[in-house]
């Protein structure tokens, strides 16, 4: 009843609370579409066949919760890699912060806010009808000594978060080194990618690479693979796959008609289409063979190559050194894992990559600004007077309390949440055209874009009423930023508490049920064939990491302003802790491994959240006419930035590259390993473009259908 009253006080109808808790009660039951919800187990062949009648589908069981809870960090590491461990450490890190903040906020700051009477007195009897402003710092009297409680709370929480950040940074850095030492030799550790290779009319790209590295790295150079332009082959392979699906569907249709006894139409139009599609498929296969031949590929050399070395140290030395007098030629960089390579985009030149980054930057900026339109709509719904002016015919409806609560409390957050669903895919698509050559770099860059997009459009635009002019005026007048934030941020406390409930709780529960993949599976099932390759999904970090970090930003900034948000955040994080552990066990499998490079993004976002909290506190104490507190708040952001600089110098280099000590120590371990000779031979095969691999859809097994590759 208390939670229901709190939700009602922030504009969420009690009926919606009942619906949510009813949905939450079935979280203990795993859904029945196992092809959607446990694809990892199906792909690994570890799931048992489920009988048609299964009591577990009807009666809620909590076995999956117990399995997720008991999963150790070492088991998670072996199951999903270090990136999954870092993701879960981010959630447990947030849980520690907001458990500590919740104790201070609920048991210390909240009573202080309620005891104030600057806005109105707190009504203990009629709890649900209290305005949310009663629970915020706005209700504390100006100049009151009780504001010192909030001052010390900000200092204590900042110190606690910095201690935790240091501990986590150090722990994950050591975990990254331990993961490196315990790993077997991997191709990307001995490989660099060289781009912008100078072309010559008398030498091929392959000959140029061979000559260059034989001359300058004679003792450590092993071999190389020149990257080919395979866009034509990829388009042909897509056409072949679509034709094969059509043929499979037609054959399936014929078999069904045969079972039904429809013999007169059995050898009719469908067989003619099958023959027609079969001929087209055979022609495409022949065309692919021709493009895959050595003679054709010789003219499709890109100015890029993977170069292999005898040791990790030699590869690291090569990509850290400038290879040519001209810095725009022979550009070396670390090679991604073979499974992490993004083959469709290998830019021809330094200039083309630079132009592509500029175009994507402009497109991202325009998209960010255009997204202010739904934010303006959302803010209009939260203002009843503005709605009555714009739509006079709604005046009579808006007098109904239930309708008012839905429109001002629930509907704005729902519209914003639905609009934000499209942001991660769009950012991922734009980033893929930016010139990155690995999926991990694309996802990391998209993750940063989504984080700052969310901060700009969801936090700042909402706080400043969704007006671009208001945002611009704040940025152009930096002296008054703390004052403007101090006025605007507390006023949106109700909206952001509702946002945590509608966006946070529903997103994490929908992650368990996987509604969108379920609908996609039901739609595509009639068009799929038994020969379709089953693809296990991976966790989209650029979707889920920004969401968790943004809720962390809301919790830190509203910690001393409106501590009522903290219980809702803790509920979200507790759900996320259990549900994501379950997803790593049953649903997701890693498609690549970065060795925990995600953590610096988490650290930087937390530092930004602390600085934002300090700026708001500075403005609040100035508005509340507590000048000494405002003055003593100035050293806090300076100390926080100094701490961040220390962490950047101490830990960040470990996440950028491994040290000489680590590389040579690992190389010495491999010197007496008899498997290394075979490992060097397989390096060339490891970085082979999938478009150049043999394939065949037709039933003809004649040698003519084998790719013409030497």
Keywords:
mainly alpha; 4 strands; 64% helix; 710 residues; globular; 31 helices; transport; CSC1/OSCA1-like_7TM; 4-stranded antiparallel beta sheet
What does this molecule look like?
It contains 31 helices and four strands. It has 710 residues and is mainly α. It has a domain at 3-185 and 436-524 and 543-658. The protein has a four-stranded antiparallel sheet with strand order 2-3-1-4, sandwiched between helices. Helix 7 runs antiparallel to helix 8, helix 15 packs parallel to helix 19 and helix 18 (423-432) packs across helix 19. The longest helix has 43 residues, at 73-115. The radius of gyration is 30 Å and the shape is globular. The termini are far apart.
Net shape = globular
Low-confidence stretches: 1-35, 46-53, 124-129, 700-710
**% residues in beta strands:** under 5%
Structural class comes to mainly alpha
The percent of residues in helical segments reads 55-70%
What is the residue-mean pLDDT, rounded to a whole number? 80
Main location: membrane
Coiled coil: 240-301
Protein name: CSC1-like protein At1g69450 isoform X1
Keywords: Calcium, Coiled coil, Ion channel, Ion transport, Membrane, Transmembrane, Transmembrane helix, Transport
């Amino acid at each position: 009843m208390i939670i229901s009253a709190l939700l009602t006080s922030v504009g969420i109808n009690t009926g919606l609370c009942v619906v949510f808790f009813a949905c939450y009660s079935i979280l203990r039951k795993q859904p029945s579409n196992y092809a959607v919800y446990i694809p990892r187990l199906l792909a690994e062949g570890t799931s048992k066949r489920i009988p048609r009648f299964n009591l577990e589908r009807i009666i809620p069981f909590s076995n999956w919760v117990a399995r997720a809870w008991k999963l150790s960090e070492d088991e998670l590491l072996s199951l999903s890699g270090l990136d999954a461990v870092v993701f879960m450490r981010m959630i447990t890190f947030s849980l520690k912060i907001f458990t500590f903040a919740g104790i201070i906020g609920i048991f210390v700051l909240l009573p202080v806010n309620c005891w104030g009477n600057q806005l109105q007195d707190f009504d203990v009897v009629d709890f649900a009808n209290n305005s949310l402003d009663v629970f915020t710092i706005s209700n504390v009297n100006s100049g009151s000594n009780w504001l010192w409680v909030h001052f010390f709370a900000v200092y204590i929480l900042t110190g606690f978060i910095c201690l935790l950040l240091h501990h986590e940074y150090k722990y994950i850095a050591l975990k990254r080194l331990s993961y490196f030492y315990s790993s077997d030799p991997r191709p990307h550790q001995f490989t660099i990618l060289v781009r912008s290779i100078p072309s010559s009319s008398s030498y091929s790209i392959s000959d140029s690479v061979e000559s260059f590295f034989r001359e300058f790295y004679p003792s450590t150079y092993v071999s190389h693979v020149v990257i080919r332009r395979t866009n034509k082959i990829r388009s042909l392979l897509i056409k072949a796959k679509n034709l094969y699906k059509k043929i499979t569907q037609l054959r399936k249709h014929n078999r069904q008609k045969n079972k039904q006894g429809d013999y007169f139409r059995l050898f009719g139009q469908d067989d003619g289409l099958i023959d027609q599609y079969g001929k087209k498929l055979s022609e495409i296969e022949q065309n692919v063979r021709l493009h895959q031949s050595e003679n054709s590929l010789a003219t499709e050399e890109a100015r890029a190559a993977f170069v292999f070395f005898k040791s990790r140290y030699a590869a690291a030395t090569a990509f850290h050194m400038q290879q040519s007098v001209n810095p725009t030629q022979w550009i070396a960089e670390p090679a991604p894992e073979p499974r992490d390579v993004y083959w469709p985009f290998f830019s021809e030149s330094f200039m083309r990559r630079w132009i592509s980054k500029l175009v994507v930057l402009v497109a991202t900026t325009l998209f960010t600004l255009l997204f202010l339109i739904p934010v303006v709509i959302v803010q209009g719904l939260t203002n009843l007077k503005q709605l009555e002016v714009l739509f006079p015919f709604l005046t009579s409806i808006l007098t109904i309390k239930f309708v008012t609560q839905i429109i001002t409390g629930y509907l704005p957050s729902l519209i914003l949440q639905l609009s934000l669903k499209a942001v991660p895919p769009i950012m991922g698509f734009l980033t893929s055209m930016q010139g990155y050559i690995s999926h991990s770099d694309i996802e990391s860059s998209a993750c940063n874009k989504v984080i700052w997009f969310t901060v700009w459009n969801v936090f700042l635009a909402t706080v400043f009423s969704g007006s671009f002019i208001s945002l611009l005026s704040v940025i152009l007048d930096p002296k008054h930023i703390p004052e403007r934030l101090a006025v605007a941020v507390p006023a949106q406390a109700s909206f952001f508490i509702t946002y945590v409930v509608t966006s946070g709780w529903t997103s994490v529960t929908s992650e368990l049920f996987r509604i969108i993949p379920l609908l996609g599976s039901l739609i595509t099932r009639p068009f799929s064939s038994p020969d379709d390759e089953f693809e296990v999904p991976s966790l989209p970090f650029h979707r889920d990491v920004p969401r968790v970090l943004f809720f962390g930003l809301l919790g830190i900034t509203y910690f001393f302003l409106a501590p009522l948000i903290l219980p809702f955040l803790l509920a979200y994080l507790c759900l996320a802790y259990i549900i994501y552990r379950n997803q790593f066990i049953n649903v997701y499998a890693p498609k690549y491994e970065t060795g925990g490079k995600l953590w610096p993004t988490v650290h930087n976002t937390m530092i930004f959240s602390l600085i934002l909290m300090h700026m708001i506190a500075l403005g609040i104490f100035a508005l509340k006419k507590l000048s000494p507190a405002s003055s003593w708040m100035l050293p806090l952001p300076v100390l926080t930035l100094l701490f961040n600089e220390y962490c950047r110098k101490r830990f960040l280099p470990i996440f950028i590259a491994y040290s000489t000590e680590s590389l040579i120590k690992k190389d010495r371990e491999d010197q007496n390993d008899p498997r290394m000779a075979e490992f060097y031979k397989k390096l060339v095969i490891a970085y082979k473009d999938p478009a150049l691999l043999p394939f065949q859809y037709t039933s003809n097994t004649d040698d003519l259908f084998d790719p013409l590759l030497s």
